[in-house]
Prior knowledge:
By secondary structure, this protein is an alpha/beta fold. It folds into three domains: 56-191, Rossmann fold, CATH 3.40.50; 220-441, ANL, N-terminal domain (Rossmann fold); 447-547, 2-Layer Sandwich (GMP Synthetase, Chain A, domain 3), CATH 3.30.300. The chain has 18 helices and 25 strands. The strands form six sheets. The protein has a nine-stranded mixed β-sheet, sandwiched between helices. A hairpin with a 5-residue loop joins strand 19 and strand 20 (436-441). The protein is globular, with a radius of gyration of 23 Å. Adenosine monophosphate binds next to helix 9, strand 14 and strand 19.
Amino acid sequence: xxxxxxxxxxxxxxxxxxxxxxxxxxxxxxxxxxxxxxxxxxxxxxxxxxxxxxxxxxxxxxxxxxxxxxxxxxxxxxxxxxxxxxxxxxxxxxxxxxxxxxxxxxxxxxxxxxxxxxxxxxxxxxxxxxxxxxxxxxxxxxxxxxxxxxxxxxxxxxxxxxxxxxxxxxxxxxxxxxxxxxxxxxxxxxxxxxxxxxxxxxxxxxxxxxxxxxxxxxxxxxxxxxxxxxxxxxxxxxxxxxxxxxxxxxxxxxxxxxxxxxxxxxxxxxxxxxxxxxxxxxxxxxxxxxxxxxxxxxxxxxxxxxxxxxxxxxxxxxxxxxxxxxxxxxxxxxxxxxxxxxxxxxxxxxxxxxxxxxxxxxxxxxxxxxxxxxxxxxxxxxxxxxxxxxxxxxxxxxxxxxxxxxxxxxxxxxxxxxxxxxxxxxxxxxxxxxxxxxxxxxxxxxxxxxxxxxxxxxxxxxxxxxxxxxxxxxxxxxxxxxxxxxxxxxxxxxxxxxxxxxxxxxxxxxxxxxxxxxxxxxxxxxxxxxxxxxxxxxxxxxxxxxxx
Length: 548
Ligand code: AMP
């Protein structure tokens, strides 16, 4: 049972018992493993970022003080704190401190705009919201301040950068050497159970605005432990995080948390220029990194010309979208590291190719589940199982896959079957050797280099433009990103331009990566026999235009 937050859906009791009996679940929380690792080798380097280099001991001091200060601000076990920050030391210290005091961070990608952030804040009802200023998108700090006025639970804006008025200065909050005249509160027992949320991740795989996913303590700790073994992460690991660490793939597969829990080192970088990344790899002797295919592709191209010493690299995890087999086979040759394909989702299931798999498995498949107790079903449109080798929608449940969304019974009922399987919306094939190949999406999602754009979301916003009568968004193949958004628009009297529409959507607060990159103005949208917009015909049309 979830004790401190009744809104966290709990996994079926019989299965929970099975996971406990099998030794997968335990009372250990990820915060416990992280703290133990910080104390084990206090002098070993824990974090390197643009601005700081902290040993595990120094990191522990920062995490402890930040926890006291947060508790002094009134943050209690079970409270949510929404965190939208780039890969900076303060981000890491804040997240670790929140785990420590049992106040689950809600991790929001830095690329999310006003629209997505507002939705998350309304759903999570946090006590605090951490944002950064000083970027092009300072407007988010302004929105955070506005939200503080509008959302009754939201007491504090923690601001990294230009701190004003009632904002809490996040850099000071996270720095034990900085003066702090706010109240302090010592450690308190954390009453959270195995089912209570350790963190909240956001959904990327289903339709609609992001849904809030409560990742329960027991499952989360187990998943990170299992992933550490599969990726061979140890105290000697040096992980380079150049993709946003707020994404589950970078945070917990085993990622930043798994590396720190093993006593290793995390190098926090900025996205994602290969030259800068290569300098960091050479300087810090990086062993592991986690990339989406588009970035892996840029690295593979640049590696052919670099003089940087990349010989420390051992494992490159690629996931978030499916890499082309040619890219997959290039990675080992060009970067000299083992490719580990990863397929998974913030709701749970993780599949990996194993480091000692045959080359063909590594290049051609997205791997197999991390846990022997992960269950996968592949079903046809009627929900009936399909045989191995035939594509079907992948359904899954298991020891670290959640039972539902936070405070969203409607979305939960849609995305989960009555017996607890999560409908991924992914079309996949299982090979006889158990490895999975992802063939695409059942639903209408455009995957721009790993960033998921629900077409419907975008369409709902575009038709609000006065010059748009009707519209449809489809993915169009793109060399670098895999696919980007093409918008088909039926105009009112005056034809809108792509620039106008992009500005309109930006002003509505839509995340920049969701903006359309191509516009086709048409008299009418094609429809199917039952009158739905015929997206197949639109995809064929844009492919034809691209060839012409
Ligand atoms: P997110 O929750 O943001 O991690 O998104 C999860 C979704 O990303 C999955 O349901 C898939 O649609 C997609 N995805 C993740 N990894 C892969 C992969 N290796 N190949 C293909 N699609 C992937």
